[in-house]
Write a structure and sequence with these properties.
Number of helices: 25
Largest sheet: 5 strands, antiparallel
Distance between the termini: 104 Å
Radius of gyration: 45 Å
Helix content: 40-55%
Strand content: 15-25%
Number of strands: 25
Structural class: alpha+beta
């Protein structure tokens, strides 16, 4: 067995970074070609273990797929004398080189088969070796024929004559001395004129030096195999596969096979791979489909390919690809509605089945005068159209092949149309899936942004009107709306009440000319609003001018202000419609389902924020009332009862003095004094009860740890606590201030920094107390202006204690708050 030179210039399908084609559920065209290939296709790892094998390989080996997959090709199939060369070829492939060779293998039943083999490396995008593609063409019969021909040329002349391959005998000067009928047909000359013609005439001028080089190599004996372009007498160029063998001194036998179909298949496979890569890399749909049209046009000379997509109206087609078709013709196709008699593409889209028109001038499907006339005007005579059907059975568009002469498709043409249609479907569905994914991401981002924004705004406790205006402005920005208006339903009188109106950053707009403001009950004359309040579902108005669900007054008002379409999104509480948000637009594309879903989500967020605001106010009022009641109870149970006792003792002392019982009077006065002092202590205790409850049961360090742990419980934040030295007893004021500083630092970190870790260190030295609060969050620029009360409050508390506050922070490097206090307590005592 002999190896050939590297075929760097040979057109070989590039399988690098492609998935293994043995997946059973892959319905792509690549899988179709892989399974039905007449050649054996194997995928090998570095050691020659078989990763995948196609049906042809299983058939020729005699083994089952299970027996082949995972087996080593050297041990299972190859002959011992072939293994060194094949192993070298495999090593070359691992190093990224493509090689050809001849190889023999022994089938399960002992039969020897001969192959022409090609090793092609499969590499990842980063150049890493994945596997080797080993393509084997069964040449056993041809080898046997060549052997028989070498034994007796005369005996097998009849066999040579009937061979479908061109067979020539050439002398040492490169002149034909013998050629069969297929050889004459390939050369394009009568068989009797073939003898005596120089072989060099069939080479391109720039390649004739290769013929001389190969001839010299053949004089040393052996066989050469290669591919080249064959120039016929009429100038046509045909790709051929050549096998040349020295049969006796000074003479050589050459067998040429027309490999046009194979080259077309390789080009088609390479084109398909390129298209799938474009789809995977998210190239624009038009770019992908235009590339597909050009590939098909290269496959079939004279083809004019086009792709049309069915528009959203379901009636017209839109030209998205047709690089070789006149623009005027593509515009004509877009104007014609689909139907039972609408040319090839319009009819195929209407029927959902292929339409083959071999003669546009006479076919009844083209009985649309202006359509037929336009096609003939641009030289179009035949048109074959296939509908592009989605995986869900819906028509997406059409793929069409035009010709400038009357023509009917061959079986190969129909296979090519089906393959192209499948690729169009894949490209369209991938594009629409990505569009749906982008819309879904937009919806999710909008919901998260609105929720985050609403919670952030709620945390700052702004005026309710300003808060609602900011929320509506967010909705308008995300949906690119003219204006966004919140109306609430007043159940007491059945009227609509304007709650908030946002146009851009303007939150205070309220047009007194709006019909619902002029007459809050006029909404009942609007069928669309009645529908929304009844069903509790969004109402979409795509054409306000002609939508019968819009009242005349509202239509005139909106039309005068440039509104052409709008959305009405009900705001629900407990499943009941409490109002709606109106979102107005000028001219824009039709509302997509994901946009309506986003509007609903944002409306729910706005209503949730309103409810939270109302709940927070109610909770605050309830908390104040509870505290007042508690203090009243406390005063009643302690101070009032104590003062009552004092009064009783004083009255008893007065009676004793009146009766001249001095000792008894003094005893009553002493008891009254004790009760008064006891009541004073209770009054002081009530005042102290207004201080942080956390300090009631322990010192500030234990209270701070409990506060931080409770606040961060259930979150992803990791907290650590470090106490160094012995904590002295601190004044109550210090404990309260340090607790509030720690609480403020933690609140700021959670609200703004988003840390993963929060550390609390307390260092107790003989001369000072040092509290360090550190996080690894986003940080901030300390030099920037900060208008909040938190940092200022920290400084005021530290100043009260006569200490020092140090804050260090930077973007993305966290924040440290350090409080240093002297141990003399003079500042507060």
């Amino acid at each position: 067995m002999k190896s050939d030179v590297a075929v760097a210039d040979q057109i070989v399908p590039d399988y690098r970074a492609a998935p293994c084609p043995s997946a059973k559920h892959d319905e792509s065209a690549a899988r179709f070609l892989y399974e039905l290939s007449p050649d054996v296709i194997l995928f090998l790892d570095k050691e020659g273990n078989i990763l995948c094998v196609n049906s042809r390989g299983i058939e020729l080996s005699g083994y089952s797929e299970t027996q082949l997959r995972g087996a080593n090709i050297f041990a299972r199939l190859l002959l011992p004398e072939d293994r060194p060369v094949v192993r070298q070829m495999l090593e070359d492939a691992v190093n990224g080189n493509t090689r050809e060779c001849e190889v023999c293998w022994r089938t399960k039943d002992g039969t020897l088969l001969q192959f022409d083999g090609t090793f092609v490396p499969r590499l990842s995008d980063s150049g890493e070796f994945l596997s080797t593609l080993f393509i084997l063409r069964d040449v056993t019969e041809r080898k046997r024929a060549e052997e028989k021909l070498r034994k007796s040329e005369e005996k097998y002349r009849d066999l040579i004559e009937i061979s479908p391959d061109a067979i020539y005998v050439i002398d040492a000067q490169g002149v034909w001395v013998l050629g069969n009928r297929a050889g004459a047909a390939l050369a394009g000359v009568p068989q009797n004129e073939l003898i005596g013609r120089p072989v060099a005439e069939t080479y391109l001028p720039e390649e004739r030096h290769l013929f001389q080089e190969r001839l010299e190599r053949l004089k040393a004996g052996g066989t050469l195999r290669f591919e080249r372009t064959f120039v016929r007498k009429n100038g046509d160029i045909i790709p051929v596969e050549v096998s040349v063998t020295a049969i006796r001194v000074g003479y050589f036998q050459a067998i040429l096979r027309d490999i046009s179909e194979r080259k077309q298949a390789e080009a088609l496979l390479a084109g398909e791979k390129r298209l799938l890569e474009m789809i995977a890399t998210r190239a624009a749909l038009k770019e992908i489909l235009n590339a597909l049209c050009l590939i098909i046009e290269e496959q079939r000379s004279g083809t004019l390919a086009s792709v049309l997509l069915l528009r959203r109206d379901g009636v017209h087609l839109e030209s998205v690809a047709g690089p070789s078709l006149p623009k005027e013709w593509t515009e004509q196709m877009e104007n014609l509605p689909i139907g039972p008699c609408a040319g090839s593409c319009g009819t195929a889209a209407y029927r959902g089945s292929p339409v083959i028109v071999s003669d546009i001038a006479t076919d009844a499907l083209w009985d649309v005068p202006e359509h037929r006339a336009s096609a003939l005007k641009h030289g179009l005579r035949a048109s074959w159209s296939n509908p592009v059907i989605s995986s869900k059975g819906k028509v997406l568009g059409t793929f069409c092949m035009y010709y400038r002469q009357t023509r009917s498709p061959t079986s190969q043409d129909l296979e090519l149309i089906d393959l192209a249609t499948d690729l169009v479907r894949i490209a369209i569905e991938r594009d629409r899936a990505e569009e749906a994914l982008r819309a879904s991401e937009q919806l999710a981002r909008g919901q998260v942004e609105a929720l985050t924004y609403s919670l952030d705004v709620l945390a700052t406790e702004p005026a309710p009107d300003k808060f609602l205006g900011q929320m509506l402005s967010t909705i308008g920005r995300l949906l690119s709306a003219q204006s966004v208006i919140l109306w609430l339903f007043d159940e007491s009188n059945g009227s609509l009440v304007l709650r908030a109106w946002a146009e851009g950053a303007n939150f205070t707009k309220a047009d007194p000319e709006h019909p619902f403001i002029k007459n809050p009950l006029s909404w009942k004359d609007d069928p669309g609003l009645q529908e929304m309040f009844f069903f509790g579902a969004p109402v979409v108005c795509e054409d306000m001018e002609h939508d019968s669900r819009t009242s005349d007054d509202l239509r005139d008002y909106l039309k005068a202000r440039g509104t052409r379409k709008f959305l009405r999104i009900p705001t629900l509480v407990g499943g009941r419609v409490k109002g709606f948000i109106g979102i107005r637009h000028s001219d824009r594309p039709p509302y997509r389902p994901e946009e309506i879903e986003l509007a609903q989500a944002l409306a729910h967020q706005a209503m949730l924020a309103i409810q939270l605001n109302e709940f927070a106010e109610k909770s605050r009022q309830a908390a104040v009332l509870d505290e007042r009641n508690r203090m009243a109870r406390d005063i009643h149970d302690t101070l009032a009862q104590g003062f009552t006792g004092v009064i009783i003792q004083l009255e008893a002392a007065e009676d004793a003095i009146a009766c001249c019982r001095g000792n008894e009077a003094n005893e009553h006065l002493r008891r009254a004094g004790d009760l008064a002092r006891r009541s004073l202590n209770e009054a002081r205790r009530s005042v102290r009860a207004l201080r942080p409850q956390a300090l009631q049961q322990g010192n500030f360090w234990e209270a701070l740890k409990e506060l931080i742990q409770n606040t961060t419980a259930g979150t992803a934040i990791h907290t650590t606590f470090d106490l160094r030295g012995k904590l002295r007893e601190l004044p109550q004021g210090w404990q309260e201030n340090l607790l509030h500083i720690g609480q403020e630092a933690l609140t700021n970190a959670l609200k703004y920094a988003h840390p993963r870790n929060f550390e609390t260190h307390l260092i107790c030295d003989p001369n000072e107390l040092r509290l360090e609060l550190r996080d690894d969050g986003d940080g901030f620029n300390v030099g920037d202006r900060h208008d909040g009360f938190g940092l200022a409050g920290m400084r005021e508390r530290v100043d009260q204690m006569g200490g020092k506050l140090e804050i260090t922070s930077s973007r993305d490097n966290g924040t440290a708050v350090i409080v240093t206090l002297p141990h003399d307590h003079e500042s507060i005592t």
